[in-house]
Amino acid sequence: MAFHYWTALFLLLSCLFSISNASAGDADPDYRTCISECEISGCVGQLCFPQCNSSSDGGPWYIQEPLYLQWKKWGCQGDCRYQCMVNRERERETLGQAPVKYHGKWPFKRVLGIHEPASVAFSVLNLAMHFHGWLSFFITLYYKLPLKQDKSAYYEYVGLWHIYGLLSMNSWFWSAVFHSRDVDLTERLDYSSAVAVLGFSLILAILRTFDIRVEATRVMVSAPILAFVTTHILYINFYKLDYGWNMIVCVAMGVTQLFLWARWAAVSSHPSNWKLWVVVIAGGLAMLLEIYDFPPYEGYFDAHSIWHAATIP
User: Fold this and answer.
1) Has residue 60 got a pLDDT over 50?
2) According to the UniProt entry, where is the signal peptide (predicted)?
3) Distance of CA 190 to the CA centre of its chain
4) pTM of the predicted model as reported, rounded to 2 decimal places
C-alpha cells in the first residue's frame, strides 16, 4: 500500500512538472537563427546531418544505414535543435551565463541517441522494482498463503492489485520511452499511461480504504471514474493535448487518493501503517526536488532525474 501511495505521488508530480511550455532557450534569437540555417543547409558549423538533405523514405534499402544505427538519429529538426542547443550553451558558458531550458527541457547530453539517459535508467529501475513487487505479491498469495478449494486466494483485492501492478509497469515503461525520445507519440503514450494508472489508483484507493467488498457497490463506484478517465484519454489523444486541463485532472485524482490513504493510515490498525507514513514524509521531501528545479549536473542529472532515483528505494 505504501508502494501504491508513492506511485500516486510520482504520477501527480509528473503531471504537474512535465508541461512543455515555451522556454527561454528556444526564444533565443541566435538559437532560432541556427535552427533555420541548419534546416536549409543541413549543417551546424562543420557538422552536417545527411537526413536534412534526404528524401522522407531514406532512399533504396541498400544505401540506408542498418537499423541499429538508424534508431539513434532524430531526424533533421531534432538533430538541428540538439546541435544548436549544444553550441549555444557553449557560448553561454563562455560568457559566464547559466544554462536555460529549450522546449521545456534542460540541455542534456545524449547517450546513444537517448535524450535524458539518467531519467531513462532510473525509470527502468523503477519498472524493475514494480515488477519485483508484483511478482512477490503473486508468489506470496499463491505459494506461501493458504488457498481456497478452487485454488483462488482468500484476499478480496487480488484482481485489483494485479491490474494496478500491470498499469504501473506500463506507465514506467512509457516514462522510460518518453525520456529516451521526446516526440509527439511518446508524449501522448506517457501522458495516457499516467492518467490511466492514476484513475485506476483512485478507484483502488476508494475500494480499499473504505473496505468495499460487495461487487455491485464496487461497480457503482468504479463505473463513473472509468468513464471519465476513458473520455479524458480520448480527449488528449484525439482532440487536444491540453496541458493545463490534464494537470487539473491529474491533481484532482492524485490529491484525492493521497488524502484517502493518509486518512486510512491514521484510523487503521494495519501493522504496516508506519511504512505508509514513511512514504508520506519521504514523498514530501522528494517534492522539493521538483519544486526547486536545477539544470543537469555534467549534462545528465537534473532535479527530475534525481527524483526518479529517489523513488526506487
Assistant:
1) no
2) 1-22
3) 6
4) 0.83
Q: What is the pLDDT of residues 2-25, one digit of tens each?
A: 656 666 666 666 665 555 555 788
| Grid coordinates given for 146 | 493458504
Q: Distance between CA 272 and CA 277 in Å, rounded?
A: 9
310 vs 289, which has greater pLDDT? 310
CA atoms of 302 and 288, how far apart (whole Å): 13
- How many residues belong to the chain? 313
- Give the position of cell 508468489: 139
**Residue 162, all three cell numbers:** 494485479
What Å distances lie between residue 116 and 31, 99, 105, CA to CA?
21, 16, 10
C-alpha cell at 28: 533565443
Of the ranges 10-24, 106-120, 158-172, which one carries the lowest mean pLDDT score? 10-24
